Amino acid sequence: MKTGSVFQRPGFRSQDRTMGIVGAWTVFVVNEAYAVTSGLGYLSIKAPSDPISDPYLSIMSLLIVLMAPFLVITMVAVHTYAAPEYKRYSLAALVFMILLAGITSSVNFALFAVARQPTPLSSQWVLSYTTSEWPPLPQALDFFAWDWFFAFSMLFASPVFRGGRLENAVRVLMLLTTVLCFLALAWFPVSPSQATLIGTIGWGVAGPIVFLLLANLFTRIRPDPGPSPAA
Q: 222 phi and psi, to 5 degrees?
């Protein structure tokens, strides 16, 4: 299979293709919006040690909440795309992505809700969440979800993609994302700020490219017109 070829995947229906394209493109676009918003947030602070404040923090939290279900939708398409011998791996990838989506959307919605409350307690909670030093429980949970569950989702999804250059590129980037996220988690007790940077490169730089390639891959697939398999 050549990179520019259009091919057919047995059992991969038009609905599966649409879910994959919409899910992967949405994840990529929202990720880029998150990167731009965080960049603007960092530019707005007066000192490097200052945390990102509203409205940037609230927008970033809402973008994560928006992106979470589309991460799962994309993995549903990956599971459908997987060849029968790799279905167990794609199912594991889907389960880990569901765990990630549940944790990160809950933490970030809570952060958004608390940030909107004009009380000293909420201000201290938000400030502690955005610190680069030893983080509180909610921030630690969010780091853990991305550096652990997202990494495992990429790891188990990687065997699904093999054969053509585009599929091989997806697999290599998934494995690279996995390595960076695991490295970040291992380095977290040593230096939370450095671990955050490593993890961000994993799920925040390599990760979006994975979903961009997935959107490209699903776009090139010609849906299988055959009858739906029996339940």
A: -90, 120
Task: Give residue-wise pLDDT tens across range 187-208.
Answer: 988 888 888 889 989 999 999 9
Tokens of residue 135, six digits = 């983080």
Question: Is 2 within the bounds of a domain?
Answer: no
Instruction: Evaluate whether residue 228 is within a structural domain.
Output: no
- Closest of 73, 67, 100 to residue 177, by C-alpha: 100
Phi, psi of 203 (to 5 degrees): -85, -15
Closest alpha carbon to 34 in 166, 204, 176, 192: 204
- Choice between 1 and 154, residue whose per-residue pLDDT is larger: 154
pTM of the predicted model as reported, rounded to 2 decimal places = 0.84
- Site of tokens 């509180």: 136
